């Protein structure tokens, strides 16, 4: 009565995981934008739509990177691509903004800093 009852069908307290298999399974998942990253991108997108410069977008979650493409018209090639490539996170930064020509306009570790490439520069007004 005072002893502990044995449960033969219970799971063991610890599970041995093969690290190589775990990494392989994790690599099979596509790269995605996190909620805060997508919020920052959609803030810029909303502003540019309100200004009449952008009209459509597409999000691609690929095996090696996530891409947010911006279009002036849905039938055209993207004007800009906002990319997240985790393989570059320790080097130049995981985030980049790429123009239609393939030119990287800005790259870095912080998405909000990279998205500043879309900020309007002040213009000199002469009176």
Which parts are unreliable, with pLDDT below 50 for 5 consecutive residues or more?
A: none
Strand arrangement, major sheet: 1-2-3-4-5
Number of strands: 5
N-to-C CA distance: 96 Å
Structural class: alpha+beta
Tell me, what's the shape? elongated
How does the major sheet shape up? 5 strands, antiparallel
Oligomer: single chain
Average pLDDT figure: 85
Number of DSSP helices? 3
* Range of strand content: 15-25%
Backbone CA Rg:
23 Å
- Helix share bin: 10-25%
- Sequence of secondary-structure elements: HHEEEEEH
Q: What does this entry look like structurally?
A:
- There is one protein chain.
- By secondary structure, the chain is α+β, with helices and mostly antiparallel strands.
- It contains 3 helices and 5 strands.
- It has a 5-stranded antiparallel β-sheet with strand order 1-2-3-4-5.
- A hairpin with a 4-residue loop joins strand 1 and strand 2.
- The termini are far apart.
Write the layout of secondary structure elements.
Blueprint: H1 19-28, H2 35-50, E1 56-61, E2 66-71, E3 80-84, E4 95-99, E5 104-108, H3 111-114
Antiparallel strand pairs: 1-2, 2-3, 3-4, 4-5
